[in-house]
Input
Amino acid sequence: GAVVSQHPSWVICKSGTSVKIECRSLDFQATTMFWYRQFPKQSLMLMATSNEGSKATYEQGVEKDKFLINHASLTLSTLTVTSAHPEDSSFYICSARVRPGSFDYGYTFGSGTRLTVV
Amino acid sequence: DAKTTQPPSMDCAEGRAANLPCNHSTISGNEYVYWYRQIHSQGPQYIIHGLKNNETNEMASLIITEDRKSSTLILPHATLRDTAVYYCIVSSSGNTGKLIFGQGTTLQVKP
Output
């Protein structure tokens, strides 16, 4: 089945530094990927939609300059949290549409990245 | 995208069927019903999705009412490993159709 690989699975960084999270589609091409954030005991919140070869579309209230998204190839999207602060500590999850318009599979998710900013 | 309403929590005895309801009264004609589940500290796992007809796969069955305003996810023989948060989501089938998660139902399977 369609697999999305997300790395790293966890990361600890110092306040003020930047962290990059990678999301790769292993056995399919993903023209569109999605980035979510999840705080403890809360649901997933969509942050942005990442489109291959074009600028990402951010949801209302998400700072595009803080959460940089790059989708340079059909199998890789990256999320960079710039100048991280403790309030950015969260669980970040990526997702890809397996076959747009197709009935099969729908969307597949990465395993998530636990970011802790100290 | 249409909004969904789910009960916040449910219990189910191990080995029995778990029936998880979802209301999506504002669903439009091109929107699918998706079900995902999330086990603690993991990414969501796809379960099943459908448009109009009932669907069944190796994990579960999806029953969609004729008016499409509600659906039920059925786990036929729940196990302890089915304890998770279950999300019912409606989304369009277009290329940029995105999944917006609600609060979901926390299913606790008890021995």
About this structure: The interface with chain A takes residues 32, 34, 36, 38, 41-46, 49, 51, 87, 93-104 of chain B (CB under 8 Å).
